[in-house]
Design a protein that fits this description.
Elements lengths: L4 E9 L5 H11 L3 E13 L2 E7 L2 H14 L4 E4 L5 H13 L5 E3 L17 H8 L5 E2 L3 H8 L6 H13 L4 E4 L9 E7 L4 E7 L9 H14 L4 H17 L15 H8 L2
Parallel strand pairs: 1-2, 1-4, 4-5, 5-6, 6-7
Antiparallel strand pairs: 2-3, 7-8, 8-9
Helix pairs in contact: 1-7, 2-3, 3-4, 5-6, 7-8
Bound molecules: adenosine-5'-diphosphate and (4-amino-2-methylpyrimidin-5-yl)methyl dihydrogen phosphate.
Length: about 270
């Protein structure tokens, strides 16, 4: 039996809804073997972020090297990278080990407003990581921070997508969760030539903690299985939609999504 192998390089969320925890749960649900490199430990729950503790750089290097020595990931995603030094190390190692299917989720700010990336690291993200990426998955505020384009309309989003591809990304998907279009949320994919829209109903809920992490992890899992980008985005959108629609109602704030929902729905429809 061959099994896809996916690696997440991201921060730990003690609350279990975002970060490494969301990524590994998603990999597991999509039948992909999950591995992790932890860049920072965060103390978080559904109410907010209490603290951020970056892993010493030798610890990040050592985790990356241990994986590279023995386990070759079929796809890799990055999430919370926290600072310039970590971004540069990740960039070096990705090149050194020849890892190719790189999904860059440019995590910058937690839903409650707490920064998860130092502002001084945005240039490193642009110069050192985006050019290596197979796909970048910003939300609207992240796309604005990367491009300097204020995004108010769908055309602004298209302009920002073009700019991100010009920075060297093979694909970009600008997610629409922060700007619902009526009753729908549209995620916009650009492959350097054409635009593709992925639509889903807007679910009126405050339980969206970890949506970005879960979406990019599902995308990574599908790429690790060898799916093409369109198929992978389609599955990721379905996965996150069901996860939000069937949120667990855990915690007093922005609760986690339901990582079981996609597989249970699939099983029920058979
Ligand atoms: N309320 C919602 N209902 C349905 N889908 C959502 C909702 N919020 C976010 N999503 C989906 O979750 C993913 C992440 O969206 P977004 O909120 O834009 O990013 P982030 O979580 O990084 O801020 C996207 O695929 C988006 O379509
Ligand atoms: C460790 C970690 N990584 C990422 C996020 C962003 O979460 P979201 O996916 O809701 O934007 C988070 N809150 N914590």
């Amino acid at each position: 039996m061959t099994i896809g192998k996916a690696l997440t390089i991201a921060g730990s969320d003690s609350g279990g809804g975002a970060g490494i925890q969301a990524d590994l749960k998603t990999f597991q649900e999509l039948d992909v073997y999950g591995m992790s490199v932890i860049t920072a430990v965060t103390s978080q729950n559904t109410l907010g972020v209490h603290g951020v503790y970056p892993v010493p750089i030798e610890g990040v290097i050592s985790q990356l090297d241990a994986i590279a020595e023995d386990l070759s990931p079929d796809a890799v995603k990055t999430g919370m990278l926290f600072n310039q030094e970590i971004i540069q190390i990740v960039s070096n190692k990705v090149q050194k080990h020849g890892w190719e299917k790189i999904v860059v989720d440019p995590v910058m700010i937690a839903k409650g407003g707490h920064p998860l990336l130092e502002e001084s690291a945005i240039n490193a993200l642009i110069n050192d990581l985006i050019p290596l990426s197979f796909i970048v998955t910003p939300n609207i505020p992240e796309a604005e921070a990367i491009t300097g384009i204020e995004i108010k309309s769908f055309d602004d989003r298209k302009e920002a997508a073009k700019k991100i591809c010009q920075m060297g990304a093979k694909h970009v998907i600008i997610k629409g969760g922060h700007q619902p279009s009526g009753s729908e949320i549209i995620d916009l994919l650009f492959d350097g030539h054409d635009f593709y829209e992925f639509k889903g109903n807007y679910v009126n809920t405050k339980h969206t903690h970890g949506t970005g992490c879960t979406f990019s992890a599902a995308l990574t899992a599908e790429l690790a299985k060898g799916k093409d980008v369109i198929e992978a985005v389609k599955t990721a959108k379905e996965f996150i939609h069901l996860a939000v629609e069937n949120a667990l109602g855990i915690g007093g704030g922005h609760g986690p999504t339901n990582h079981w929902a996609y597989k249970r729905n699939l099983a029920a429809s058979k």
